[in-house]
Amino acid sequence: MSGGQQQRVAIARALVKRPKVLLADEPTGNLDESMRDEVMEVLETMWKEHGLTFVMVTHDSAIARRAPRLATIRKGKVTITENAAA
Q1: pTM score, whole prediction
Q2: Helix (H, G, I), strand (E, B) or coil at 61
Q3: Which of 29, 48, 63, 69 has the highest local Cβ count within 10 Å?
Q4: Which residues, in sequence order, are bridge partners of residue 22?
Q5: Residues 40, 26: Cα–Cα separation, whole Å
């Protein structure tokens, strides 16, 4: 299995249990743009329709723009902003 396939399986395995909170460290990091968007659609559906809370770490600005709330850490300072576009 490729790294991207393994990553998708890990996400699916976590979602099957219907957790209330999902911690994700770069969940789309090994995926191409198309698969990244597909995975994010599933995660957004889980958030909007099932109330699942995500705490996600990403360096991908396209992913960050989709989040309703962003916590950014720079020089040891945490800044939380609401994202009206999400």
Answers
A1: 0.73
A2: helix
A3: 63
A4: 54
A5: 12
Domain ranges of the chain: 3-82
* Position 17 pLDDT exceeds 80: yes
SS3 71: strand
Q: Which CATH architecture has domain 3-82?
A: 3-Layer(aba) Sandwich (3.40)
Q: How far is CA 24 from CA 11, 29, 40, 75, 84, in A?
A: 9, 11, 12, 22, 22
Distance CA 40, CA 19 (A): 17
DSSP 2-48: -HHHHHHHHHHHHHHT--SEEEEESTTTTS-HHHHHHHHHHHHHHHH
Q: Which two tokens stand for residue 25?
A: 């460290």
